[in-house]
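Quick one, probably user error.
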């Protein structure tokens, strides 16, 4: 979805041709899986951070085109709204001092981002949902100037037969609004963690990532407020699911199949199953015939980018044209700090590696329906959520994270060959966050409880604390 398209206007023949190419490329992918013809190396890390541009008063600043021109970095790209940008990192082998190197590189990039924004009389913030965002900011005049976003908006509403989107979230307060475009989606920004995996272990890593989604979202929740309403600990999840509320073919368009989804189940034999499901159940939204060679599966990858699983399998190609498998974990909110972000990634990589390599396959540890229920409980209540776990019992997310998953993270990072100093430094951030029972969502609520429901004061103080370099559990209230 990061690539621009040549046209945003389509006719029936465009859809027919794209569907034919998609079917062919899905068959070609099946051959790659049958031959196990993927890069087979030590796991590789990477991530994307979506962020906000704001003005001096902390209103959203529609400046991403000017920002990206001034920033002039191929690792940065526009998002749906012209007050959002995405920052990517170079892939790194998950070994040695990878997290300290990742942290240093991210800090350097973030400093460049801040300096670039300052040159435009603006600021840049990492936050799952910007507390000052207002419903009226989310309109088509604030959509980024890219054909793919205009096309996406039009096709979503074509599939919805023109029916407006209703955002209805019950949390500590209740929010209900309607929209006639997809711009609600741009109010949700995330920290997307990638792991390139050995193809023989891909199913285990994918299923482990699904299993881990609930405790991970509880640990990293950072989106309690939307339009001034106190909703879920991670309001970004229901917001995004409802903002692109379009389903599958015909009668399924308003049924249980959703393009933003926790998924339909664990993978059984290979990640090919997800791409076959894309072909069989999700109508094409962007029928663009691409110039890339068929061998890089461009139409399959574009279509996969319009199915937003919270854990999404990806096919990529290296500079030599060799295919590889990645898993994109999408449940983590952007922020609160660069240190928190790297610590979140370290925790995820450690636990997912431990679970993927454990004697019992992840999918046998917890029924998929329970993993899904856990996820939405954790989004709603964060560290307080009661979760089902391996032994058939229940406990809070806080207990599960502290007593079971943190030790797993250490063991998993040791299996990867991460340096002792990196393990200690970044997992200690997680340990102290749990000890203090403070993630981004709890910090924001504590601030509002003390200072009142002033979203501008909250955002200003969040920004100042973010730039202190401290992890969120040490932020001042």
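Nope, works fine. Designed sequence:
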């Amino acid at each position: 979805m990061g690539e621009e398209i040549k046209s945003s206007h389509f006719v029936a023949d465009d859809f027919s041709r794209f569907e034919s190419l998609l079917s062919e490329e899905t068959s070609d992918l099946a051959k790659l899986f049958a031959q196990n013809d993927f890069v087979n190396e030590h796991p590789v890390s990477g991530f994307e951070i979506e962020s906000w541009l704001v003005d001096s008063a902390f209103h959203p600043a529609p400046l991403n085109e000017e920002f990206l021109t001034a920033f002039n970095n191929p690792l940065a790209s526009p998002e749906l709204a012209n007050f959002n940008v995405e920052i990517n990192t170079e892939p790194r082998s998950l070994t040695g001092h990878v997290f300290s190197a990742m942290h240093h590189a991210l800090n350097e990039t973030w400093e460049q981002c801040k300096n670039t924004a300052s040159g435009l009389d603006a600021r840049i913030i990492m936050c799952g949902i910007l507390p000052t965002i207002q419903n009226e900011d989310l309109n088509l005049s604030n959509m980024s100037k890219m054909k793919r976003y205009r096309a996406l908006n039009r096709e979503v509403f074509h599939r919805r037969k023109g029916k407006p989107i209703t955002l209805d979230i019950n949390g500590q307060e209740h929010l209900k609004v309607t929209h006639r475009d997809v711009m609600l989606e741009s109010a949700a920004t995330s920290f997307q963690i990638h792991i390139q995996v050995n193809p023989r272990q891909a199913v285990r890593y994918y299923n482990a990532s699904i299993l881990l989604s609930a405790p991970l979202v509880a640990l990293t929740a950072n989106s309690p407020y939307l339009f001034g309403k106190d909703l879920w600990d991670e309001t970004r999840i229901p917001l995004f699911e409802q903002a692109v509320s379009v389903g599958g073919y015909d009668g399924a368009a308003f049924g249980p199949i959703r393009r933003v989804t926790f998924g339909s189940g664990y993978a059984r034999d290979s990640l090919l199953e997800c791409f076959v499901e894309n072909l069989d159940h999700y109508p094409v939204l962007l029928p663009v015939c691409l110039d890339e060679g068929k061998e890089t599966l461009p139409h399959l990858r574009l279509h996969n980018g319009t199915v937003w699983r919270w854990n999404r399998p990806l096919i990529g190609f290296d500079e030599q044209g060799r295919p590889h498998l990645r898993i994109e974990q999408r449940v983590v909110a952007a922020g609160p700090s660069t240190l928190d972000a790297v610590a979140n990634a370290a925790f995820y990589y450690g636990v997912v590696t431990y679970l993927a390599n454990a004697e019992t396959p992840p999918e046998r540890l917890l029924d998929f329906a329970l993993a899904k229920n856990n996820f939405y409980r954790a989004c709603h209540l964060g560290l307080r959520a009661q979760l089902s776990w391996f032994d058939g019992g229940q406990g809070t997310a806080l207990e599960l994270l502290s007593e079971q998953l943190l030790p797993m993270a250490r063991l998993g990072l040791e299996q990867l060959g991460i340096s002792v100093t990196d393990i200690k430094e970044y997992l200690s951030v997680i340990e102290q966050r749990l000890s203090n029972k403070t993630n981004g969502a709890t910090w924001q609520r504590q601030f509002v409880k003390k200072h009142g429901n002033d979203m501008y004061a909250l955002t200003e103080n969040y920004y100042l604390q973010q730039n202190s370099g401290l992890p969120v559990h040490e932020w001042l209230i």
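The chain has one domain: 12-467.
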